[in-house]
Specification:
The protein is built from 13 helices and no strands. It is mainly alpha-helical and about 350 residues long. Helix 7 runs antiparallel to helix 8 and helix 12 runs antiparallel to helix 13.
Length: about 350
Amino acid sequence: MEREPHNQTFTLAVARRFVAASELPPEVAEALVAAAEAPPGASDWRSFLSWFLAFAGVALALSGVIFFFAYNWAALGKFSKLGLLEFAIVAAALGAWRLGDRLWGGVLLLIAVVLVGPLLAVYGQTYQTGADPYELFLGWIGLTLPWVVLARSPALWMFSLVLVDVAFVLFWQQVLAARHDIERNVPAMLALTVLNTSPWALWELLHRRGIAWLSTRWAPRFMGVVTNATFVWCLVLMIVDEARQAPGYDVSIVFLSLGIVAASVHVYRNVIPDLFMLALSSASVMTVVTVGVGRILFSGMDAEIGGVFVLGLLVVAQVAGAATWLRSESRRMNHLQQPMSPRDGVTS
Protein backbone atom coordinates (compact mmCIF):
# COMPACT_ATOMS: atom_id res chain seq x y z
CA MET A 1 0.00 0.00 0.00
CA GLU A 2 1.30 3.44 -0.85
CA ARG A 3 1.64 5.54 2.29
CA GLU A 4 -0.56 8.63 2.35
CA PRO A 5 0.97 11.90 3.58
CA HIS A 6 0.20 12.30 7.28
CA ASN A 7 -1.50 15.69 6.83
CA GLN A 8 -3.35 15.02 3.60
CA THR A 9 -6.80 16.57 3.34
CA PHE A 10 -9.57 14.13 4.26
CA THR A 11 -11.39 13.78 0.95
CA LEU A 12 -13.69 11.09 -0.38
CA ALA A 13 -10.91 9.61 -2.51
CA VAL A 14 -8.55 9.46 0.47
CA ALA A 15 -11.22 7.83 2.64
CA ARG A 16 -11.94 5.17 0.03
CA ARG A 17 -8.27 4.35 -0.49
CA PHE A 18 -7.80 4.07 3.25
CA VAL A 19 -10.81 1.78 3.63
CA ALA A 20 -9.76 -0.38 0.69
CA ALA A 21 -6.29 -0.91 2.15
CA SER A 22 -7.34 -1.49 5.77
CA GLU A 23 -9.20 -4.17 7.67
CA LEU A 24 -12.03 -2.11 9.10
CA PRO A 25 -15.41 -3.65 9.96
CA PRO A 26 -18.01 -2.98 7.22
CA GLU A 27 -20.08 -0.66 9.41
CA VAL A 28 -17.00 1.41 10.32
CA ALA A 29 -15.94 1.59 6.67
CA GLU A 30 -19.41 2.76 5.61
CA ALA A 31 -19.46 5.40 8.35
CA LEU A 32 -16.02 6.69 7.32
CA VAL A 33 -17.01 7.01 3.65
CA ALA A 34 -20.32 8.62 4.63
CA ALA A 35 -18.43 11.19 6.69
CA ALA A 36 -16.23 12.01 3.69
CA GLU A 37 -19.29 12.32 1.43
CA ALA A 38 -21.05 14.70 3.81
CA PRO A 39 -21.49 18.28 2.54
CA PRO A 40 -19.30 21.01 4.03
CA GLY A 41 -20.28 21.96 7.55
CA ALA A 42 -20.04 25.20 9.47
CA SER A 43 -16.39 24.64 10.41
CA ASP A 44 -15.49 23.94 6.76
CA TRP A 45 -17.15 27.16 5.64
CA ARG A 46 -15.42 29.11 8.41
CA SER A 47 -12.06 27.72 7.29
CA PHE A 48 -12.75 28.57 3.64
CA LEU A 49 -13.94 32.08 4.48
CA SER A 50 -10.91 32.63 6.71
CA TRP A 51 -8.54 31.82 3.86
CA PHE A 52 -10.57 33.72 1.27
CA LEU A 53 -10.99 36.87 3.34
CA ALA A 54 -7.37 36.77 4.47
CA PHE A 55 -6.00 36.68 0.94
CA ALA A 56 -8.60 39.17 -0.31
CA GLY A 57 -7.48 41.51 2.47
CA VAL A 58 -3.85 40.98 1.50
CA ALA A 59 -4.60 41.81 -2.14
CA LEU A 60 -6.44 44.99 -1.18
CA ALA A 61 -3.76 46.04 1.30
CA LEU A 62 -0.96 45.53 -1.23
CA SER A 63 -2.94 47.46 -3.84
CA GLY A 64 -3.28 50.25 -1.29
CA VAL A 65 0.49 50.28 -0.76
CA ILE A 66 1.13 50.63 -4.49
CA PHE A 67 -1.45 53.41 -4.93
CA PHE A 68 -0.15 55.18 -1.83
CA PHE A 69 3.33 55.50 -3.35
CA ALA A 70 1.92 56.43 -6.75
CA TYR A 71 -0.21 59.23 -5.31
CA ASN A 72 2.37 60.59 -2.85
CA TRP A 73 5.46 60.03 -4.98
CA ALA A 74 6.41 63.69 -5.27
CA ALA A 75 5.77 64.45 -1.59
CA LEU A 76 7.86 61.63 -0.18
CA GLY A 77 11.63 61.77 0.07
CA LYS A 78 13.74 58.87 -1.11
CA PHE A 79 14.50 57.69 2.42
CA SER A 80 10.82 57.84 3.34
CA LYS A 81 9.87 55.75 0.32
CA LEU A 82 12.51 53.10 0.93
CA GLY A 83 12.17 53.18 4.70
CA LEU A 84 8.43 52.60 4.74
CA LEU A 85 8.68 49.62 2.43
CA GLU A 86 11.64 48.13 4.27
CA PHE A 87 9.84 48.54 7.60
CA ALA A 88 6.75 46.78 6.19
CA ILE A 89 8.85 43.90 4.83
CA VAL A 90 10.74 43.41 8.10
CA ALA A 91 7.54 43.61 10.16
CA ALA A 92 5.76 41.10 7.92
CA ALA A 93 8.74 38.72 7.96
CA LEU A 94 9.03 38.88 11.75
CA GLY A 95 5.30 38.32 12.11
CA ALA A 96 5.48 35.29 9.81
CA TRP A 97 8.39 33.92 11.83
CA ARG A 98 6.48 34.31 15.10
CA LEU A 99 3.22 32.81 13.82
CA GLY A 100 4.85 29.90 12.00
CA ASP A 101 2.60 27.57 10.01
CA ARG A 102 -0.66 29.19 11.05
CA LEU A 103 -2.89 30.97 8.55
CA TRP A 104 -1.67 34.48 9.28
CA GLY A 105 1.93 33.31 9.31
CA GLY A 106 1.59 32.28 5.67
CA VAL A 107 -0.29 35.47 4.83
CA LEU A 108 2.37 37.70 6.37
CA LEU A 109 5.15 35.85 4.57
CA LEU A 110 3.29 36.31 1.28
CA ILE A 111 3.02 40.03 2.04
CA ALA A 112 6.77 40.22 2.69
CA VAL A 113 7.55 38.44 -0.58
CA VAL A 114 5.19 40.63 -2.61
CA LEU A 115 6.50 43.89 -1.10
CA VAL A 116 10.03 43.12 -2.29
CA GLY A 117 8.88 43.96 -5.82
CA PRO A 118 7.64 47.48 -5.02
CA LEU A 119 10.83 48.03 -3.00
CA LEU A 120 12.98 47.20 -6.04
CA ALA A 121 10.76 49.37 -8.26
CA VAL A 122 11.02 52.34 -5.89
CA TYR A 123 14.78 51.88 -5.64
CA GLY A 124 15.11 51.78 -9.43
CA GLN A 125 12.97 54.88 -9.89
CA THR A 126 14.73 56.80 -7.12
CA TYR A 127 18.30 56.17 -8.22
CA GLN A 128 17.63 55.58 -11.94
CA THR A 129 19.62 52.36 -12.14
CA GLY A 130 18.80 51.88 -15.81
CA ALA A 131 17.80 48.26 -15.28
CA ASP A 132 15.25 46.75 -17.65
CA PRO A 133 11.90 45.67 -16.16
CA TYR A 134 12.72 41.98 -16.64
CA GLU A 135 15.78 42.47 -14.43
CA LEU A 136 13.54 43.77 -11.66
CA PHE A 137 11.55 40.53 -11.77
CA LEU A 138 14.71 38.43 -11.81
CA GLY A 139 15.99 40.31 -8.77
CA TRP A 140 12.59 39.85 -7.12
CA ILE A 141 12.83 36.08 -7.65
CA GLY A 142 16.42 35.88 -6.44
CA LEU A 143 15.87 37.88 -3.26
CA THR A 144 12.74 36.01 -2.21
CA LEU A 145 13.80 32.50 -3.25
CA PRO A 146 15.23 31.56 0.19
CA TRP A 147 11.91 32.45 1.85
CA VAL A 148 9.99 30.48 -0.76
CA VAL A 149 12.18 27.39 -0.36
CA LEU A 150 12.10 27.43 3.44
CA ALA A 151 8.38 28.15 3.73
CA ARG A 152 7.28 25.17 1.59
CA SER A 153 4.13 27.06 0.68
CA PRO A 154 2.28 26.25 -2.57
CA ALA A 155 1.04 29.85 -2.77
CA LEU A 156 4.59 31.23 -2.67
CA TRP A 157 5.80 28.74 -5.27
CA MET A 158 2.95 29.64 -7.61
CA PHE A 159 3.66 33.34 -7.11
CA SER A 160 7.32 32.71 -7.95
CA LEU A 161 6.30 30.81 -11.08
CA VAL A 162 4.22 33.80 -12.17
CA LEU A 163 7.26 36.04 -11.64
CA VAL A 164 9.37 33.69 -13.77
CA ASP A 165 6.77 33.78 -16.57
CA VAL A 166 6.54 37.58 -16.47
CA ALA A 167 10.33 37.92 -16.45
CA PHE A 168 10.60 35.61 -19.47
CA VAL A 169 7.92 37.48 -21.44
CA LEU A 170 9.57 40.84 -20.71
CA PHE A 171 13.00 39.44 -21.61
CA TRP A 172 11.61 38.18 -24.91
CA GLN A 173 9.99 41.50 -25.76
CA GLN A 174 12.76 43.83 -24.56
CA VAL A 175 15.88 41.86 -25.49
CA LEU A 176 15.36 39.07 -28.00
CA ALA A 177 12.53 40.50 -30.09
CA ALA A 178 13.76 44.11 -29.95
CA ARG A 179 17.45 43.48 -30.59
CA HIS A 180 17.10 40.68 -33.14
CA ASP A 181 13.99 41.99 -34.93
CA ILE A 182 11.85 38.96 -34.09
CA GLU A 183 8.19 39.60 -34.86
CA ARG A 184 6.79 36.13 -34.27
CA ASN A 185 5.14 35.24 -30.97
CA VAL A 186 5.01 31.48 -31.50
CA PRO A 187 8.62 30.74 -30.37
CA ALA A 188 8.04 32.69 -27.15
CA MET A 189 4.81 30.87 -26.38
CA LEU A 190 6.44 27.54 -27.22
CA ALA A 191 9.27 28.25 -24.79
CA LEU A 192 6.75 29.40 -22.18
CA THR A 193 4.91 26.09 -22.58
CA VAL A 194 8.08 24.14 -21.82
CA LEU A 195 8.88 26.49 -18.94
CA ASN A 196 5.53 25.76 -17.25
CA THR A 197 5.32 22.06 -18.11
CA SER A 198 8.53 21.21 -16.26
CA PRO A 199 7.50 22.38 -12.74
CA TRP A 200 4.02 20.93 -13.30
CA ALA A 201 5.43 17.47 -14.02
CA LEU A 202 7.96 17.76 -11.18
CA TRP A 203 5.21 18.76 -8.72
CA GLU A 204 3.09 15.71 -9.57
CA LEU A 205 6.11 13.40 -9.42
CA LEU A 206 7.07 14.61 -5.96
CA HIS A 207 3.43 14.48 -4.87
CA ARG A 208 3.33 10.81 -5.84
CA ARG A 209 6.37 10.22 -3.64
CA GLY A 210 4.45 11.34 -0.58
CA ILE A 211 5.75 14.85 0.14
CA ALA A 212 3.02 16.17 2.42
CA TRP A 213 2.98 19.88 1.54
CA LEU A 214 2.60 19.03 -2.16
CA SER A 215 -0.72 17.24 -1.59
CA THR A 216 -2.79 20.34 -2.43
CA ARG A 217 -4.54 20.10 -5.80
CA TRP A 218 -5.06 23.76 -6.70
CA ALA A 219 -1.37 24.36 -7.47
CA PRO A 220 -0.94 21.67 -10.19
CA ARG A 221 -4.31 22.70 -11.60
CA PHE A 222 -3.08 26.28 -11.82
CA MET A 223 0.08 25.15 -13.63
CA GLY A 224 -2.02 22.95 -15.91
CA VAL A 225 -4.24 25.88 -16.85
CA VAL A 226 -1.22 28.07 -17.65
CA THR A 227 0.47 25.33 -19.69
CA ASN A 228 -2.65 24.50 -21.67
CA ALA A 229 -3.28 28.18 -22.34
CA THR A 230 0.22 28.64 -23.78
CA PHE A 231 0.25 25.67 -26.13
CA VAL A 232 -3.34 26.33 -27.25
CA TRP A 233 -2.33 29.90 -28.05
CA CYS A 234 0.62 28.53 -30.05
CA LEU A 235 -1.68 26.29 -32.07
CA VAL A 236 -4.19 29.08 -32.62
CA LEU A 237 -1.46 31.39 -33.93
CA MET A 238 -0.23 28.63 -36.21
CA ILE A 239 -3.72 27.97 -37.55
CA VAL A 240 -4.86 31.53 -38.16
CA ASP A 241 -1.55 32.88 -39.55
CA GLU A 242 0.60 29.88 -40.35
CA ALA A 243 2.81 31.43 -43.03
CA ARG A 244 4.05 34.32 -40.88
CA GLN A 245 3.76 33.13 -37.31
CA ALA A 246 5.09 29.58 -37.22
CA PRO A 247 7.63 28.75 -39.95
CA GLY A 248 9.76 25.87 -38.72
CA TYR A 249 7.85 25.52 -35.48
CA ASP A 250 4.67 23.80 -36.64
CA VAL A 251 5.91 20.22 -36.12
CA SER A 252 7.36 21.02 -32.70
CA ILE A 253 4.14 22.71 -31.58
CA VAL A 254 1.92 19.86 -32.75
CA PHE A 255 4.02 17.08 -31.19
CA LEU A 256 4.54 18.96 -27.93
CA SER A 257 0.82 19.73 -27.64
CA LEU A 258 -0.18 16.14 -28.42
CA GLY A 259 2.36 14.87 -25.91
CA ILE A 260 1.06 17.16 -23.15
CA VAL A 261 -2.58 16.23 -23.78
CA ALA A 262 -1.85 12.50 -24.01
CA ALA A 263 0.28 12.54 -20.85
CA SER A 264 -2.35 14.55 -18.98
CA VAL A 265 -5.14 12.17 -19.94
CA HIS A 266 -3.09 9.14 -18.96
CA VAL A 267 -1.88 10.55 -15.64
CA TYR A 268 -5.20 12.03 -14.54
CA ARG A 269 -7.19 8.96 -15.57
CA ASN A 270 -4.96 6.23 -14.19
CA VAL A 271 -2.32 7.62 -11.82
CA ILE A 272 -3.78 10.70 -10.09
CA PRO A 273 -7.52 10.71 -10.86
CA ASP A 274 -8.54 14.33 -11.37
CA LEU A 275 -11.68 15.20 -13.30
CA PHE A 276 -10.79 18.89 -13.48
CA MET A 277 -7.59 18.14 -15.41
CA LEU A 278 -9.46 15.86 -17.82
CA ALA A 279 -11.97 18.65 -18.40
CA LEU A 280 -9.07 21.03 -19.02
CA SER A 281 -7.59 18.73 -21.66
CA SER A 282 -11.01 18.42 -23.30
CA ALA A 283 -11.42 22.19 -23.40
CA SER A 284 -7.98 22.61 -24.98
CA VAL A 285 -8.71 20.06 -27.70
CA MET A 286 -12.14 21.57 -28.40
CA THR A 287 -10.68 25.06 -28.70
CA VAL A 288 -8.05 24.01 -31.23
CA VAL A 289 -10.50 21.91 -33.26
CA THR A 290 -13.03 24.75 -33.36
CA VAL A 291 -10.44 27.28 -34.53
CA GLY A 292 -9.10 24.86 -37.14
CA VAL A 293 -12.51 24.04 -38.58
CA GLY A 294 -13.43 27.73 -38.49
CA ARG A 295 -10.37 28.61 -40.53
CA ILE A 296 -11.24 25.95 -43.10
CA LEU A 297 -14.84 27.13 -43.33
CA PHE A 298 -14.25 30.87 -43.46
CA SER A 299 -10.80 31.16 -45.09
CA GLY A 300 -10.63 28.03 -47.21
CA MET A 301 -14.26 27.62 -48.27
CA ASP A 302 -15.50 31.23 -47.92
CA ALA A 303 -18.54 29.99 -46.03
CA GLU A 304 -20.57 32.67 -44.29
CA ILE A 305 -23.99 31.92 -42.79
CA GLY A 306 -23.64 28.22 -43.50
CA GLY A 307 -20.20 28.22 -41.87
CA VAL A 308 -21.58 29.77 -38.70
CA PHE A 309 -24.31 27.11 -38.58
CA VAL A 310 -21.82 24.26 -39.11
CA LEU A 311 -19.41 25.69 -36.53
CA GLY A 312 -22.24 26.00 -33.99
CA LEU A 313 -23.22 22.37 -34.53
CA LEU A 314 -19.59 21.35 -34.12
CA VAL A 315 -19.31 23.18 -30.80
CA VAL A 316 -22.51 21.58 -29.52
CA ALA A 317 -21.34 18.13 -30.59
CA GLN A 318 -17.94 18.60 -28.95
CA VAL A 319 -19.45 19.81 -25.68
CA ALA A 320 -21.92 16.91 -25.64
CA GLY A 321 -19.17 14.40 -26.35
CA ALA A 322 -16.86 15.86 -23.71
CA ALA A 323 -19.65 15.91 -21.11
CA THR A 324 -20.51 12.28 -21.85
CA TRP A 325 -16.87 11.24 -21.56
CA LEU A 326 -16.33 13.18 -18.35
CA ARG A 327 -19.46 11.65 -16.79
CA SER A 328 -18.24 8.17 -17.65
CA GLU A 329 -14.80 8.99 -16.23
CA SER A 330 -16.39 10.28 -13.03
CA ARG A 331 -18.33 7.03 -12.63
CA ARG A 332 -15.22 5.00 -13.36
CA MET A 333 -13.17 6.92 -10.77
CA ASN A 334 -15.87 6.46 -8.15
CA HIS A 335 -16.10 2.76 -8.95
CA LEU A 336 -12.34 2.27 -8.68
CA GLN A 337 -12.30 4.04 -5.33
CA GLN A 338 -15.27 2.20 -3.80
CA PRO A 339 -14.44 0.74 -0.39
CA MET A 340 -13.90 -2.99 -0.19
CA SER A 341 -13.83 -5.18 2.85
CA PRO A 342 -11.04 -7.67 3.63
CA ARG A 343 -13.39 -10.47 2.53
CA ASP A 344 -13.14 -9.12 -1.02
CA GLY A 345 -9.49 -10.03 -1.09
CA VAL A 346 -7.99 -6.55 -0.87
CA THR A 347 -4.26 -6.54 -0.25
CA SER A 348 -1.98 -3.59 0.36
